[in-house]
């Protein structure tokens, strides 16, 4: 299993688990999860998590950009909305409970509302899904490297074959500073620059 696939699987699983994990602690209600019996935004994230899992297993990683970014966007909206509602409740309390003797209890209840570990798990899951989409496929990189090495070996083989032919005819080679092309010292005197392998092969064939 490639690192890309492993990260995608972990991210998708984290999203699935995070939807049902507690994301907030609220007085009286207790812990609240993101799914909320299918009524919350968590139901959308759960669908995106399952789609991400299928995409990773099918190795269709480009689709993870969509599922990861949309999931992260929904969570950002939830985070902003959560803090907005807390701020609104505090503002309402300031005006409605200004002289109420139970104001302290209400303040304590509001202060106890907080995000739980499930929300962090969701964020990590979405980030891992996006990271999986961003990573290059190792097999593609290895194949490209192998192809490049094969092409370089073939290039050297052809060049060395031409050089041996010309050297057998008394030609000498002087390496260029840039390492590209050849400078040939002719048996009859004088030098000639050859810029490409194709020209070197034609030059060698014409001297056979």
**DSSP summary, beta strand count:** 6
Total DSSP helices: 7
Shape: rod-shaped
Strands side by side in the biggest sheet? 2-1-3
Describe the structure.
With 208 residues, this protein is mostly helical. It folds into two domains: 3-135; 154-206, no CATH class. It contains seven helices and six strands; from the N terminus they run H-E-E-H-H-H-E-H-H-E-E-E-H. The protein has helices at residues 3-20, 42-57, 63-96, 103-111, 117-134, 138-168, 197-206, and strands spanning 22-26, 30-33, 114-115, 172-175, 182-185, 191-194. It has a three-stranded antiparallel β-sheet with strand order 2-1-3. The chain has a three-stranded antiparallel β-sheet with strand order 4-5-6. A hairpin with a 3-residue loop joins strand 1 and strand 2. Helix 1 (3-20) runs antiparallel to helix 5 (117-134). The chain is rod-shaped. The mean pLDDT is 83.
């Amino acid at each position: 299993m490639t690192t890309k696939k492993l990260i995608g699987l972990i991210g998708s699983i984290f999203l699935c688990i995070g939807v049902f994990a507690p994301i907030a602690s609220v007085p009286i209600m207790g812990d609240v999860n993101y799914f909320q019996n299918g009524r919350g935004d968590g139901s959308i994230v759960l669908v995106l998590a399952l789609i991400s899992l299928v995409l990773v297993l099918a190795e269709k990683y480009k689709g993870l950009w969509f599922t990861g970014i949309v999931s992260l966007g929904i969570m950002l909206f939830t985070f902003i909305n959560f803090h907005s509602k807390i701020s609104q409740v505090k503002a309402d309390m300031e005006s409605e409970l200004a002289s109420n003797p139970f104001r302290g209890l209400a303040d304590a209840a509001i202060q106890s509302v907080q995000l739980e570990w499930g929300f962090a798990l969701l964020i990590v899951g979405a980030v891992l899904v996006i990271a999986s989409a961003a990573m290059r496929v190792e097999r593609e990189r290895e194949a490209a490297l192998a192809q490049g090495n094969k092409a370089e070996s073939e290039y050297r083989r052809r060049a060395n074959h031409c050089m041996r032919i010309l050297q057998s005819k008394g030609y000498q080679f002087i390496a260029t500073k840039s390492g590209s092309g050849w400078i040939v010292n002719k048996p009859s005197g004088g030098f000639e620059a050859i810029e490409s392998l194709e020209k070197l092969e034609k030059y060698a064939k014409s001297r056979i």
